[in-house]
From TrEMBL:
Residues 1-28 form the signal peptide. Residues 93-126 are annotated as: Disordered. Residues 98-111 have a biased composition (Acidic residues). The keyword Signal applies. Residues 114-126 have a biased composition (Polar residues). This is Transglycosylase-like protein with SLT domain. Keywords: Signal.
């Protein structure tokens, strides 16, 4: 009886050995160890930790305020630190854009001001005017002033007299340039009371002697209300 069982046990053991060998052989041919490792839960966790470490290193170099906060911290804390840095970075970029927009607007305003620093209407020629203004324009150009200076002169005497050669105020100022007293204009001609050319001639001489040019007189008038 025992020999029979022994023979059966030996045969069974042999079958088991062959089956195990076949399984091992199949695994050796078909399985990819790296794929198995990648699918292992511990491998995925390690990869997440590595990614967090890489992100943390970027934060550490770019934003030193987070070093103490995240030193030795876990993935969640480092992710929060990275999110804070991203938010700060976005706010900084928005602020930089706002500063750039403001600087551009200021540059445009400055360029516009430089192109017309007196903020007056500049004529294209004396033909833009008529009457006493046209005469004043021609005389200003003859005195060496440009059209911007003419614009200042027109604005100045628009305010003072409306270019009316008979304009007078209660304190004795008279004529287009509002000479005070009006008799000062006699130095330019005896017809100072009625002749706009005489008044303009005197007025231009006064402006040039005291302010250098009409725009200088206009700037003074803008500041204090008279020239």
């Amino acid at each position: 009886m025992i020999p029979l069982l022994t023979r059966y046990g030996a045969r069974l053991a042999a079958v088991l050995v062959l089956a195990l060998g076949a399984v091992i052989a199949v695994n050796a041919v078909t399985d990819d160890p790296s794929e198995q490792d990648a699918q292992h839960p511990s491998q995925a966790a390690a990869e997440q930790q590595a990614e967090a470490e890489a992100a943390y290193e970027e934060v550490r170099y770019l934003h030193v305020n987070y070093i103490d906060e995240t030193a030795g911290a876990d993935v969640a804390v480092k992710a929060d630190a990275l999110a804070d840095f991203a938010a700060d970075r976005a706010e900084s970029l928005n602020s930089a854009q706002e500063d750039a927009d403001q600087a551009e607007a200021e540059a445009e305003a400055e360029a516009e001001a430089n192109s017309n620093p007196t903020s007056v209407d500049i004529p294209s020629s004396c033909s833009d005017y008529s009457g006493n203004k046209a005469t004043g324009c021609a005389m200003a150009l003859d005195n060496g002033h440009d059209l911007e200076q003419v614009g200042c002169l027109v604005a100045l005497w628009d305010r003072e007299s409306g270019w009316n050669e008979y304009a007078a105020n209660g304190i004795g100022a008279y004529g287009i340039p509002q000479a005070l007293p009006g008799s000062k204009m006699e130095s330019a001609g005896s017809d100072w009371e009625t002749n706009p050319v005489t008044q303009i001639k005197w007025g231009l001489g006064y402006i040039e002697g005291r302010y250098g040019d009409p725009c200088g007189a206009w700037a003074h008038s803008e500041d204090v209300g008279w020239y």
